[in-house]
Amino acid sequence: MATVSLRQEVTSLLQELIRVDTVNPPGNETGAAELLREYLGDHGVASQLYAKVPERANLVARIPGQGGGPRLILLSHTDTVLADPAEWALDPWSGEVREGQVWGRGALDMKGQVVASAVAIATLAQEGFEPGGDLIFAACADEEVGAGFGLQWLCQAHPESVRAEYCMNEGGGDRLVLGGRVFYACSTAEKMSSPFRIHVRGRSGHASRPGIADNALVKAAPLIEQLGRFQDEPEVGPEVEAFLRAVCGEVPTADRAVEAARAVHPLAGDLVEPLLGTTMAPTKIVASQKRNVIPARCDITVDCRILPGHTQAEVEKQIRELLGDADYELEWIEGQGGTRSRIDTPLWDVVESFVTEVEPEATVIPLLLSGFTDSHWMREAFGTVSYGFFPMRTMEAEVAARLIHSADERIDVDDLELGVRFLRHAAVEVGSLPSVR
């Protein structure tokens, strides 16, 4: 298929998909799944909808493998975060193309990659592509909230629909210019999302007589300050080590890692800083619901991110040492993510070969995500090698970072086209790998 046709097709499909409102909650991703099923069916690709509840469907499509080779899943999610039209220059669900960019909620996170994956598998099918192992496209619900309707549920209830040796997902592909050199970041690991609550108790009373009460909010204040000042002992894991070696030309000691990265470029330091240990950020506090009632209880919610290879039990010990003998209760809310994939794999070679093709002087570097994606469900369920990579050359990484989950989200059509080219490349290269079964 001609490049111009790929460009037009992916742009048009993204416009349609943005116009399907899938803000989560409530999600209502079935409309998006049905749109994709119709598009794929028109191109001869069979797909199936899997839904825990009717309005929250996941779509899975495949080109069956012919030779027992490794399976590749192009993973994506169709839900988005909310959007306030009052903050936007254009309607968040217009899908309008303006100055070579498609505007709308989800354009970057991640309906752009959804439609690029759909166009990649559809055009390959039309060309008669026969991979050695299954080529799978999954457009899942519920990534933004993770309430058990999306990939997590598919891995449990319909594991054979998404089982694969390799996975290409969101989370990387940014083009970074650091110290005059060009790098493309490919995410290979992610920290564990481990939020917790601190419950502080006191005794309620009328706010006009504070001396007769024991104000839980006041007791919580020093704990919030201590949590906000927390700094973990830095360590350099394998992803950060490879990043530093590529960017800095050496691997500095953990206590000098941020300084060394910033000496190359401030952005490099900003990327490295949260990846050297556990981070804690108090984000919510709930106490009295009435102005004139002194609270008997204060709940502090803390966003906590833990490095792969470490546990909540280890971090809980750090929290208790930090807060000393204060009177409180600690409750872990969840623990998701904290997984990694190796870098020395055929899938890494696929990413490198594409970057070499489009920008020979560029280097691919691994990235540990401070947040997390659906990749961890694939790694945990099947041992899948899962990377995040959707290359963008036109929109600067710092601009894209400011637009994701924010107003005026948009994606360059040039980057959409590049993404389709990469996903087709990945499918063809993995599809030619030798049999693994």
Question: Would you spell out the secondary-structure blueprint of this structure?
Answer:
Blueprint: H1 3-18, H2 30-42, E1 47-51, E2 57-63, E3 72-77, E4 97-98, E5 101-103, H3 107-126, E6 135-140, H4 151-157, H5 159-162, E7 166-169, E8 175-178, E9 181-190, E10 192-193, E11 196-201, E12 205-206, H6 216-228, H7 238-248, H8 257-264, H9 266-272, E13 279-286, E14 293-294, E15 297-306, H10 312-323, E16 329-332, E17 336-337, H11 346-358, E18 363-369, H12 375-382, E19 385-388, H13 397-403, E20 410-412, H14 413-431
Parallel strand pairs: 3-6, 3-7, 7-19, 9-18
Antiparallel strand pairs: 1-2, 2-6, 4-5, 5-20, 8-9, 10-15, 10-17, 11-15, 11-16, 12-14, 13-15
Descriptive terms for the model:
Alpha-Beta Plaits, 14 helices, Aminopeptidase, alpha+beta, six-stranded antiparallel sheet, 437 residues, 2 domains, 20 strands, six-stranded mixed sheet
Walk me through the structure:
This protein has 437 residues and is of the alpha+beta class. The protein has 2 domains: 3-178 and 338-431, Aminopeptidase (3-Layer(aba) Sandwich), CATH 3.40.630; 192-233 and 277-336, 2-Layer Sandwich (Alpha-Beta Plaits). The protein contains 14 helices and 20 strands. It has a 6-stranded mixed beta sheet, sandwiched between helices. Strands 10, 11, 13, 15, 16 and 17 form a 6-stranded antiparallel beta sheet that branches. Strand 4 and strand 5 form a beta hairpin. Helix 1 packs across helix 3, helix 3 (107-126) crosses helix 14 (413-431) and helix 8 runs antiparallel to helix 9. It is globular, with a radius of gyration of 23 Å.
